[in-house]
Amino acid sequence: MSKYTDFGTPAKISDNQVTLEIDGTQITVPEGTSIMHAAMVGGVTVPKLCATDSLDPYGSCRLCLVEIEGRRGFPASCTTPVAEGIKVKTQTPKLADIRKGVMELYISDHPLDCLTCATNGDCELQDMAGAVGLREVRYGYDGENHLKSEKDTSNPYFQFDPSKCIVCSRCVRACEEVQGTFALTIQGRGFESKVASGTENFLESECVSCGACVQACPTATLIEKSVVQHGVPEHSVTTTCAYCGVGCSFDAEMKGEQVVRMVPSKHGGANHGHSCVKGRFAWGYATHQDRITTPMIRKSIHDAWTEVSWDEAINYAASEITRIQAKYGKESVGGITSSRCTNEEVYVTQKLIRAVLGTNNVDTCARVCHSPTGYGLKQTLGESAGTQTFDSVMHSDVIFVMGANPTDGHPVFGSQMKRRLREGAKLIVADPRQIDLVSSPHVKADYHLKLRPGTNVALIAAMSHVIVTEGLVNEAFVKERCDFDSFEAWRDFASKQENSPEALSETLGVPAEDLRAAARLYATGGNAAIYYGLGVTEHSQGSTTVMGIANLAMATANVGREGVGVNPLRGQNNVQGSCDMGSMPHEYPGYRHVSDDATRALFETAWGRPLSKEPGLRIPNMLDQAISGNFKALYCVGEDIVQSDPNTQHVTHGLESMECVIVQDLFLNETAMYAHVFFPGASFLEKSGTFTNAERRISPVRRVMTPKNGFEDWEVTAKLASALGYPMHYSHASDILDEIAALTPTFKGVSFKKLDELGSVQWPCDDANPTGTPTMHIDEFVRGKGKFFITEYVPTTEKVNAKYPLILTTGRILSQYNVGAQTRRTDNVAWHPEDVIEIHPHDAEDRGINDGDWVGITSRAGETVLHAKITERVQPGVVYTTFHHPESGANVITTDNSDWATNCPEFKVTAVQLTKVSQLSEWQREYNDFSKEQLGFVQHPKNEVNV
Ligand code: SF4
Ligand code: SF4
Ligand code: SF4
Ligand code: FES
Q1: How far apart are CA 350 and CA 359, in angstroms?
Q2: Most buried residue among 121, 348, 722, 863 by CB atoms closer than 10 A?
Q3: What is the mean pLDDT of the chain?
């Protein structure tokens, strides 16, 4: 293992302590520590340029030389380890001379334009020139130099100015060690040496624009364009990324109310100073001209919007809800929250629906992504959440990735995982498509189980069969920790011949020997951890697969310590949190059923209203009930069901059938086109609260600028509650978190004060675990004994046939996020301006389709048209697309099929046919007309139509 356990924190290298003297001070550090690090510990600063705390030492700049009594020469302190009793001097006349000479050489080939340089005052080269006391440069600019080298400005977010490069290699090492992309090299030797990306420019290279090299660069060679534009920031506020479920912590570096740059925080528990292109660079949507900042109302969706005051909008919405409930009954209304909302926003929204409107008709977007995780893990392990920290992967010997694409969907964790794989961990990937992890620089999957979409349960059954029949079960663990009756039933089921790899090989499209070898590796390869994503949950048997995964982990004792576990990679930033907060129709915060009398009494007392004990409607049921005339009003906060939910036609029909749709969002999204009231939302930069990431880590969201719409989102919900006769007396999001903590045992110890002190905390956080719980189920499962479930494979009803011979599966891409509402309004469109359909060359050839052709994709639900991308990343018979652009209509073709337990849509399996076409589909043409009409109804501002 590397001596860095994570990005930036030197590991405890040894238990043996070593005492040395540095500049007359006695310092004790672990054996193996570098002299430079020991000096830092003792408060002594050694000049340096090529070293940085986030990278392995390199020893190239020769600025950090020291003298060691009794040793010859001048060793580099960054690469020389401490030794017992040595006496080190960091400042002597000889060292001063050497350092001046080194700096003189650097500066003689460096443009001396410090006063006009964008990093003036924030440049390590400048600092070092000062630190070594450089006063003159004897070697002039007359000889050969690099001062006229051309700038590369191709990347939308940062520029590369080789004239300022000191070839310290920090960028190259950051790209390798931290990001794991290996996009840069140092080309040439001596004077000729330079940083190269292997292509014409950065944009065309393998670079994924994570910005690690920019952060590592000690000069203005690699620099954010926003810093060039705005200058060096003057204050910073630590907050949490509003994109994916990794939950990276950032320092928002500001000039007044202007974000100058987002710098990933080295103290971030999930990211340790690293980030991806979205979090670091794609924040411009917060000030995009498309933002709507004034409330609007209208009578009909075919009317123009009227801008109104907040009071008018709130009162209108409240009067409509009251009218509708009086006319159609209490259950005729409901709400939808979003994983993009903070915990506090989700909490007040579900409270409004349950306590004020008197119904449990509240649901969340987790319905369409990770609801099977909630169900499956609760049943088996007893808690609806992942078991580990991200850092746990650094202790894994075998990593099993199923139906997830971490380098695109969870990029910072993907980098950490790749780091562990480069150190030697084994990798099993189960995915119909060749995701990057299968083969990328210095990472190669030991087994890529290229299963057919829809056969996850069969794959788990085959692996279980091998483990059970080859004696690979850890019986001692099972006997001690699990419900033995359920284990025996599962063992008998798994050992049936019909579940053998040989019997299931054809169904899966995976050789039986690969299934056997992967199962043996998982069971016997040491610490084995499972990471899974929407490729597991978004199926008709999503919950079954989750339970099957938990069975595997329990049977092999791969749960309850570091390096192992069952880890759902949550898609959006706050999927875990939104579920924790009681956003599902059957559960209060903390996953307590609404029918439980004691829990209901607790909330009735706290909220002062009677509460219903009947579970409410899920999103699909709300839409069905709307179409049948029983559901009439919806309050939709931060969610865009028209774009993100399956069978778009059904969703829009449902919305059209309602009398009052209230949308609260940053932009006039697709759902808002069917709305009667629009409440402008606040971006994550404009509000306070918390997000909970995929490892149950609650991190603070801190307001860095004034909300452009005037209010934080929880304030809008509270105003609506007041207008409905139920004042909510919160003065800050922290008051809401205090209420959550008071009513939810697993959050009992969480508060803004604790988050300020600790940075973040993983729930459960209570009296027994006051600083949180990094690893769950250590001594016993949350449910007591772990329970095995029989997971019988039932093929989906979505079958291929002569009419629909291909299977469409969907996923996401690094540069875009979910429905794209945010990332489409940033320069990230440079990497993904449209969704395309990936087709295997054989399938394309059969249909006469060439790369770039328009292709009609027809399913049993509908038709859409996308450009073709011919690639062997997909297997024959399978096609793939993303869903980041609304006009792509990816969900026009997905069906109503869903998970048997949770109604999570079967997004990953749709039978389709592809044909070469010359125009957009009928749906797309109608969509274009409708969206143009709707955008015309808004007086301000001018929305773009991305068609
Ligand atoms: S670009 Fe920056 S980090 Fe990279 S070698 Fe040049 S000065 Fe060093
Ligand atoms: S931005 Fe990231 S991926 Fe691109 S070169 Fe820099 S470190 Fe490598
Ligand atoms: S999108 Fe995810 S990985 Fe990227 S910076 Fe944000 S939280 Fe981190
Ligand atoms: S900092 Fe040690 S050689 Fe550069």
Answers
A1: 10
A2: 348
A3: 92
Handedness of CA 616, 617, 619, 622 (dihedral sign): negative
Identify the pLDDT of residue 322. Answer: 98
Distance, CA of 338 to CA of 328 (rounded, Å): 26
Cis ω on the peptide bond leading into residue 941 (within 30° of 0)? yes
**Band (139; pLDDT cuts 50, 70, 90):** low
Count of other CB atoms within 10 angstroms of residue 752: 18
What pLDDT shows up at residue 53? Answer: 86
* Residue 573 confidence (pLDDT): 86
DSSP secondary structure code for residue 55 in this structure: S
Residue nearest to atom 6 of ligand 2 (CA): 213
User: How buried is residue 99: exposed, middle or buried, by Cβ count under 10 Å (0-12/13-18/19+)?
Assistant: buried
Residue 41 has pLDDT above 80, yes or no: yes
| Amino acid (1-letter code) at residue 834 | E
Nearest to 737 by CA among 334, 280, 348: 348
Please give the C-alpha separations between residue 713 and each of 108, 688, 734, 793, in angstroms, as whole numbers: 55, 10, 14, 43
pTM, two decimals, is 0.93
- List all residues 6 or more positions away from 351 whose beta carbon is below 8 Å from its beta carbon: 607, 721, 728
Query: Which ligand has the nearest atom to the CA of 691?
Result: 3
Q: In the numeric block, which tokens belong to residue 390?
A: 């991200």
Q: Ligand 1 center to residue 249 CA distance, Å?
A: 25
Tell me the per-residue pLDDT of 694-749, one tens digit each, with 9 for 90 and over: 999 999 999 999 999 999 999 999 999 999 999 999 999 999 999 999 999 999 99
- What is the DSSP code string of 381-394? TSSSS--S-GGGGG
Q: How many CB atoms lie within 10 A of CB 852?
A: 11
Q: Is 50 in the pocket of ligand 4 (CB under 6 A)?
A: yes
Q: Where are the alpha helices (DSSP H) in 151-210?
A: 170-173
Q: Which residue has the tokens 């992890």?
A: 437
Ligand nearest to the CA of 179: 2
In three-state secondary structure terms, 876 is coil
Tell me the three state secondary structure of residue 811: strand
Our mutation pick for probing the ligand 1 site, out of 171, 172, 176, 197, counting the most ligand atoms within 8 A of Cβ, is 171
Residue 439 CA to ligand 3 centre (angstroms): 22
Identity of residue 824: R
Task: Give the DSSP per-residue string, 858-870.
Answer: EESS-EEEEEEEE
Ligand nearest to the CA of 37: 4
The protein residue whose alpha carbon is closest to atom 6 in ligand 1 is 165
Decide if 460 contacts 518 (C-beta within 8 A): no
Residue 37: helix, strand or coil by DSSP? helix
User: Does residue 581 contact residue 353 with C-beta atoms inside 8 Å?
Assistant: no
279 C-beta closer than 6 A to ligand 3 = yes
- The answer to whether 87 touches 68, Cβ cutoff 8 Å, is yes
pLDDT score of 817:
83
C-alpha of residue 48 to centroid of ligand 4, in Å: 5
Locate the ligand 1 atom nearest the alpha carbon of residue 216 and give its number.
3
Q: How confident is the model at residue 562 (pLDDT cuts 50, 70, 90)?
A: very high
167 CA to centre of ligand 4 in angstroms: 12
- Residue 145 and residue 430: Cα distance in Å, rounded? 52
DSSP 3-state percent helix, strand, coil across the chain (nearest 5): 35, 20, 45
β-bridge mates for residue 262, sequence order = 252
Atom of ligand 3 nearest to the CA of 279: 5
Mutation to probe ligand 2, out of 55, 203, 208, 419 (largest number of atoms < 8 A from CB): 208
Residue 165 near ligand 1, beta carbon < 6 Å? yes
Query: Nearest CA to 577 among 564, 567, 565, 591?
Result: 591
Dist. CA 706 → ligand 4 center (Å): 43
- pLDDT digit string (tens) for 834-844? 999 999 999 99
Q: Quick count: other Cβ atoms within 10 Å of Cβ 229?
A: 10
Please give the angle made by the CA atoms of 808, 811 and 816, to the nearest 5 degrees: 135
